[in-house]
Amino acid sequence: MNIYDFSVKDAKGNMVYLSEYRGKVLLIVNTATGCGFTPQYEGLQDLYEKYKEKGFEILDFPCNQFAGQAPGTEEEIVDFCQSRYGVTFRQFAKIEVNGKNEAPLYTFLKKQKGGLLGDNIKWNFTKFLVDKDGNIIERFAPTVKPEKLDEKINNLL
Prior knowledge:
Order of helices and strands: EEEHEHHEEH
CATH architecture: 3-Layer(aba) Sandwich
Radius of gyration: 14 Å
CATH class: Alpha Beta
Strand order of the largest sheet: 4-3-5-6
Largest sheet: 4 strands, mixed
CATH superfamily: Glutaredoxin
Structural class: alpha+beta
CATH topology: Glutaredoxin
Helix content: 25-40%
């Protein structure tokens, strides 16, 4: 099994097969609109604008599991991100990243790259960097700002 075997729903409820991202460098992030890390959307958008033409994609998965910091519908979340941070990368339906209802994609990501304190996602804006072949290269804590990933993304491209 690899990352390209998964399918997820986008913010509009459409099924998206991750195989469509084959050959691209990915940054997969669980996000929230009411989190202390929410301003990282700005840095994520900067990275996306800088590298999208070279085959870089950000996959944004809102998650309301951490202190209810992603309230609202998918449409409200997309509107917030676009109006506040100018987000143009693809946003997906809300998911759970831990527990009995966690998304299978996140079960896979956590098995590939456990965190420092175990496998569970500790908070919003945990990031997974994926190479062009679908290998999970590295996991980054929420405190790691997007701009700190610039060199790593550039090297994978």
